[in-house]
Structure formats: structure tokens, C-alpha cells
Predict the structure.
Amino acid sequence: MSKFKLPTPVVDDAKWTEIWKDGESFGQFKVKYQDTQSAKWNLQYKRIVEGLSKSERHRADNPKNEADVLIKRHLFIQILAAHYIVDSKMVAADGSILPHNMADVLELLLTPELYFIAQELDQFSVDEDNFKAPAAAKEAKKN
């Protein structure tokens, strides 16, 4: 027990969120809290970077053009998909619902025209307020 005031704890439960744009749903996603400052997240990042060649690592860390920037973006999307999106109901081009599978989630999130989905899911997953314990969330709304 700390003698200092601590922040409200974050629950480990995944939460559903739906992604909308221009009045259309692009799917529902069950997402876990992503603490990008944690040792766990940093290890996930390190492990995924180890899969890159030495030149790709250098390009990701020292981008000179759009293609270099995309390397790092793809790494972050892969971490999000592999560790923080635990279920999904993606809307297919014909309007049907696609069942959750990692290959489809990655294909969706890595489609340039759909980067906004990855961005919104990333923003949702790092926002502690979306994952606070129910009693703590009610208390936070009062203040």
C-alpha cells in the first residue's frame, strides 16, 4: 500500500466499440486497454521489431520518406491487432459481418483507405477512462 494517492485502477476487461464514418458502421471491435508506457508493451514492440531486417529497423527509426513512416505504422498496427483486439465483427464490402480472425483484422487495419479505423481503435485502447472499474468511472463523472 502506498502512502501516496494513486490513480483509479484500470480493469483488465476488454470493451466493445463501434467505428463509424460518414454515417456508416465499419464494424465492432472488442479491445483491451493498451498501456504504451508499460514494460509489457515495450517488450511486445521489441519482439515485433526483431522480425525486421537491419535496414528496415533503421528506416523505421530514421524515416526519410512516406514508405519509411509506414514501416513503423505497420508495427504499431500489428501490436494492436495481435495483443489488444480480442474480437471483432467487421463489415464486409457486401454489408455482411465477417467473423473475427487475425488475418482479416490485419488486412482491414493495414488498408490505407481504412487507416482511420486503426487510429480510432488505438485512441480508444489507450484512453484509461474507457477501462476504469465501474464504481471508479461513476465517481470520475461526478467530479
